[in-house]
Request: fold
Amino acid sequence: MKLSREINDDGRFVRQPNRFTDRLGPPEPGRYRVYASYACPWAQRVLIVRKLLGLEDLLDVTIVDPIRDEKGWRVPGGDPEYLSELYHATDPGYTGRYTVPCVWDTQEKRIVTNDFPQITLDLETTWGTSPNLYPERLRPDIDIMNDRLYHGLNNAVYEAGFSRDQQVYEEAVARVFTTLDFLEVRLAESEFLFDTLTDSDVRLYTTLARFDAVYYGHFKCSVRRLVDYPALWAYARRLYAIPAFRETTDFDQIKRHYYITQTNINPSRIVPVGPELDWSL
Reply:
């Protein structure tokens, strides 16, 4: 599936809608398996929440190869060989990109969901609540924050990187750094985005973890680096110190995926050396 189908006539990247949007049922050991990539920020969210909530025995996981080819994500040593086989087993007429994360129901033999924003919310509300990453008292504020993060940062870096028009690119970059500037002020006096660790922190972290290594250069979001924001950089390292964040962050796979897979941006497929960053506190 060509990414070019998601570039509209004015050169703007418009992410495809998620095809499978059923909600996860109650946890049943051995029933559900999430297919994820350490390279993908959307998938890492699920991996982080799975570990934070201690769901390892309830939600099985398969990590796909970070190097995606024309057939999509490969499942190392697995059955199926490619993730696309699960998409076509669920919908034989599917023509979109094969995306992670997606959750496979081993009983019904179908993809239940590839709706990455909703997967973590389902886990946080019906599978595990300790820690409570989506507390009722904060849900309206978390929803507003998540929307701002998505349009101003999480997806905006992709809009900048995949844009094919200078004005479109500059508009996306402006949103990225307006959002980072806002977050720098907010986190200057706060440990987390709210008064406790929430789903919003998970969503922000996966973009910050990739920013200097990938988005700054590869996606041309090069006004400032993460390390140029003292509060944001300290915040990112605080989260990285939490095992669920650190153990699901693989900088090697992140870099190899973006620089080798996205040949429309990096046709040489050369993976840059660096940056040398100390993520320890």
